[in-house]
Amino acid sequence: MCALLLLEVFLRVYNPLGQRIYGDQIVLPKNLSRTITNEGNSKLDSLIEYSTNSIGFRGEEPPRDFDDALTVLAIGGSTTECLFLSNGKSWPEVAGNFLSPSFDRFWINNAGLDGHSTFGHLFLLEQIVVPMRPKLALFLVGINDVGRVDATGREMATPWSKPPLLIRMARHSALIAAAVNLVRQGEARERNLGHEELDLVARPKVEPDRDRAETLLSTHRVQYLAPYRRRVEEIVRLSRENGIEPVLMTQPALYGTAIDPPTLVNLDAVAVSESRIQAGQISGKLAWEILELYNDVVRTIGQEEDVLVIDAARRLPKSSRFFYDFLHFTNDGAREVARIVAGELCPLLAHRYPEYVTSACPVMDPIPVGPAEGLEETTDLIDGEIDLGSEPQTAFKFVGDGWLERESEEAVDFRRSRGRRSWLHLPILDVQDFVLVLRARAELLDVPLTARLDVNGNTVGSMKLSEAWAEFTFEVPGDAVVTGLNTLTLLYSDTPRTLDPAFRGRNTSIALDWVRFDPKP
After folding, report:
1. Which of 5, 67, 184, 231 is a plausible cystine mate for 118, CB 3.0–4.6 Å?
2. DSSP state letter for 438
């Protein structure tokens, strides 16, 4: 007992865990300064300087004439706080650098708290933000609310519910609060919400299972989206009732329907943990579809409540240059998020607070994400056509997953598909409308066979194949392509193994000779 009392006193005085939550009470670490030595994550600075100001947030000290200044708080979880990015490099701080030349007495702070969901944002609003009354509050929400219907376990109770006994005890005990927070951190690591560097190349792959996917998507729609919607609506209501203009942001992620430009890993096949609802490992494509359900809630509320929504989920390119794990930003990623935020926030601030405007909103160029070096030479080399039987030896791998080795037959060089889906990576320099032509034939002859064609996740058409070689033409609109590598996905209606699960042999549906893509006349 004596040892426990001593530990309680020690935790109250020293707080080595940097706790910000005592039960359901937020206690911000004011004037904190830490140097973190990073030896295990190659995408982060080797020395990370992290500090907080006299409020307990990241950024400049609040202005003395707070009510007369143009004040903004960025609120969110770990993807807002950017715990392992040095001072001045988190996206709210960089956005402030972009915005401050355009406004007089402009001030922004990073009020992100690692692990916080909309439950925690509501507590932060009530306990700290509302008494401060900044003119605008920016909320990056979504990832910590996936699969959450109440505040038991990792998060505290909502402002309108009675907290559990353990949470009420943690209000008064640093020791119990430390134990609760350690459990919360463990649960975050299990859900891939930690901060370890992600090795995409070594990451396991998950085969698509549409029946399982529909079951999980339905679970989220039925059980979790309505409570999440109520919490986001409460954030909007509470902010506006207290004279604070809310702005919402959708949550970006690395996983989803794309090819990672630096590694050429197929991001919709990588394994992502979904332990919150005991789903085990799911594909990146399904993880993104689940997260987009929550992002869609934010988009809908923005339309209904006339709230600006900064759609970072759709605007931030999926590239491991911008993420060091599935969710958290590198220095370049934070800068790109800041560019997106500043570009959309500046016109709103200028419209609502014209008395602070000193100059026009800045024009900011995005950071290139595609493999720019050598791309022009590569597109010249292939001259708009990729021959699958004689792929050029270039810096880029055009032929992705889902193909067998090259073959020749009657003077035709080609590849056969492998599995239910196959991928190609098409380099494009100039975004415009394209005509895409494939030469293919069916390898599965016992049943009618169709193949659907997607470009960067957008379906552009389908084709019915026979045993004879034939050319198939598709129109690809310019808004479906990007500068850099574009992902072309072929999804087959059947494979030998879908028809007969006991089938042993080459699980092939089509043969593909070449792909040609030309500007639309």
Report:
1. 231
2. E
pLDDT for 107-149, tens place per residue?
999 999 998 999 999 999 999 999 999 999 999 999 999 998 7
The three-state (H, E, C) secondary structure of 350-393, written as one string: HHHCHHHECCCCCCCCCCCCCCCCCHHHHHHHHCCEEECCCCCC
Range of the domain at 465: 375-519
17-68 tens-digit pLDDT: 455 555 557 888 899 999 999 888 999 999 999 999 999 999 999 999 999 9
Alpha carbons 145 and 231: distance in angstroms, whole number? 10
Q: Are residues 346 and 467 in the same domain?
A: no
Whole-number Å distance between alpha carbons of 92 and 108: 7
Quote the pLDDT of residue 277.
Answer: 53
pLDDT digits (tens, 9 = 90+) for 154-197: 344 333 334 454 444 544 454 444 454 444 444 444 333 356 88
CATH number of the domain to which 493 belongs: 2.60.120.260
Tracing tokens 């001593």 back to the chain, one arrives at 6
Question: Both tokens of residue 290?
Answer: 């689940």
Of 438, 480, 428, which is closest to residue 455 (Cα–Cα)? 480
25 domain residue, yes or no: no
Q: Are 273 and 281 in contact (CB under 8 A)?
A: yes
16 Cβ contact list (under 8 Å, min separation 6): none
- Cβ atoms of residues 34 and 88 within 8 Å: no
Q: Are residues 216 and 351 in the same domain?
A: yes
Note whether 271 and 233 are same-domain residues.
yes
In what helix (H) or strand (E) does residue 50 lie, and over which residues does it extend?
A: strand 47-51
Same domain? 270 vs 210 = yes
Q: Are residues 384 and 245 in the same domain?
A: no
Give 421-445 as a 3 state SS string. Answer: EEEEEEEECCCCCEEEEEEEEECCC
3-state secondary structure 215-237: HHHHHHHHHCHHHHHHHHHHHHH
Alpha carbons within 13 A on the beta-carbon side of 290? 32
**Alpha helix (H) residue ranges in 87-195:** 91-99, 118-124, 130-132, 165-170, 174-190
The rounded distance, in Å, linking the Cα atoms of 240 and 307 is: 10
- N residues, the chain: 521
Query: Are residue 222 and residue 252 in the same domain, yes or no?
Result: yes
Q: Are residues 340 and 414 in the same domain?
A: no
pLDDT in tens, 462-518: 999 999 999 999 999 988 887 767 788 899 999 898 888 878 788 899 999 988 888
Q: H or E segment at 282?
A: strand 281-283
Q: What is the pTM of this model?
A: 0.69
Confidence of residue 263 (pLDDT cuts 50, 70, 90): confident
DSSP conformation class of 66: G
